[in-house]
Amino acid sequence: xxxxxxxxxxxxxxxxxxxxxxxxxxxxxxxxxxxxxxxxxxxxxxxxxxxxxxxxxxxxxxxxxxxxxxxxxxxxxxxxxxxxxxxxxxxxxxxxxxxxxxxxxxxxxxxxxxxxxxxxxxxxxxxxxxxxxxxxxxxxxxxxxxxxxxxxxxxxxxxxxxxxxxxxxxxxxxxxxxxxxxxxxxxxxxxxxxxxxxxxxxxxxxxxxxxxxxxxxxxxxxxxxxxxxxxxxxxxxxxxxxxxxxxxxxxxxxxxxxxxxxxxxxxxxxxxxxxxxxxxxxxxxxxxxxxxxxxxxxxxxxxxxxxxxxxxxxxxxxxxxxxxxxxxxxxxxxxxxxxxxxxxxxxxxxxxxxxxxxxxxxxxxxxxxxxxxxxxxxxxxxxxxxxxxxxxxxxxxxxxxxxxxxxxxxxxxxxxxx
Length: 418
What we know:
Low-confidence stretches: 372-378
Number of strands: 5
Oligomer: single chain
Structural class: alpha+beta
Strand order of the largest sheet: 1-2-3-5-4
CATH superfamily of the domain at 280-418: Histidine kinase-like ATPase, C-terminal domain
Helix content: over 70%
Strand content: 5-15%
CATH topology of the domain at 280-418: Heat Shock Protein 90
Distance between the termini: 38 Å
CATH class of the domain at 280-418: Alpha Beta
Mean pLDDT: 80
CATH architecture of the domain at 280-418: 2-Layer Sandwich
Shape: rod-shaped
């Protein structure tokens, strides 16, 4: 762009001072060749008057407001044609004034409207061809032949350069149209990106709200499955104690009631702890998962190993919470049903995705047998799958009786908002 601006500036200098320079050159050469050409006294006076007139005309034009515009106007066309006529007259008096006529080739497109462009260039071509053939008017048949030949050359050059100029103008229009189309496309793309960003934020809010609803359902199910059942058992044991006169049997049922109360208290604490991802309050997802797996292994006595692959990145809170919940539920299912000796949990960062794999060597299960069976009020595999799908992810389960179970959650890598 800088080169284009520099070229335009240089052309502006040529158009501004070119007529003066060519007028001076023509005047000096005319003064030096008056005697050689044999100009009469009247022709010399006429030349002087025309030179002064052309000079004043050019000065007037340079001060006119229309000169600063690059769009042809009636004033600019008048300036060109008057200068061309004066130059033709000067070249008739002395051929060296053709230098001034050559200026018409450089500014015709800026001064003349399209309908006058060819006539104006024809006047310039006739003036220069006549000067090159020995002066106007041509002398004899040979002079006219040379003049016609030179005029043909000039007209051919005008046609060639006019064609090239038209091609360049067409290319410039096409380029301008392409740039305008790209600007419109960029504007539309930016609008689409803004809409996608708003939609993304809306989806995250909806996912968060859905997660809250899931947590409420899960907590209600856990209260029903653990606390309510535990309290029912405690009541049943205490009823037996109050109904039997045998102190040994009463002591046995009292111990059972105490054990059920302790177990229910533990379940209540676990439910409250799992209400929100406390593990993510101070740690990132990798550290939170590592602690979760380690504590789970120590609590269940199962050999548990956690691995991270790829370059760990800070994840959006909703993504991190979803993966942690899926891991907790998968480990809980493993402890309840798998009877596994070893469990492996792998967190993988893969470009624009994050994958969480939980594998065990337990007894597995028949997927077709549980595909349409979900525990009442429980979270289960369908709940984990719903969690993953709400953040545009997916969950797959691989299991065979006696071959262990593998749960894999794949979600988009959405970075933490700074």
